[in-house]
Amino acid sequence: MMREHTNGGAGAGSVLLAFLTGAAIGGVVALLLAPRSGEETRRRIFEFGEDAKEKLGKVPVAVREAEKAAVSAFNDTMKKA
């Protein structure tokens, strides 16, 4: 006789949340225990934030360019049809 497996009500969302929480806690602990000075750690975090801001600033431009290319390709296809 086969029994239906249940996970005690913990769905995929709960597992993902637990994983992300553990990853965040691990990141904080790694920063706190890293063999660097506080000044160097703060500098690296700042540089990471600046890099992320720069990359995120490029996203709207890339999306607009992709949209133009898609519209152009669609129009070319429709003209050939």
Radius of gyration: 24 Å
Question: How far apart lie the N and C ends?
Answer: 59 Å
- Low-confidence parts: none
Structural class comes to: mainly alpha
Q: How many domains in all?
A: 1
Oligomer: single chain
Mean pLDDT value: 79
Largest sheet: none
Strand content: under 5%
The dominant shape is elongated
Number of helices: 2
Helical amount: over 70%
Order of helices and strands: HH
Number of strands: 0
Can I get a quick summary?
The protein is mostly helical. The chain has 2 helices and no strands.
Write the layout of secondary structure elements.
Layout: H1 12-33, H2 38-80
Explain the overall architecture.
By secondary structure, the protein is mostly helical. It has one domain. The chain is 80% helix and 0% strand. It has two helices and no strands. It has helices at residues 12-33, 38-80. It is elongated. The termini are far apart. The model has no long low-confidence stretch (mean pLDDT 79).
Please give a handful of descriptors for the protein shown:
81 residues, single chain, mainly alpha
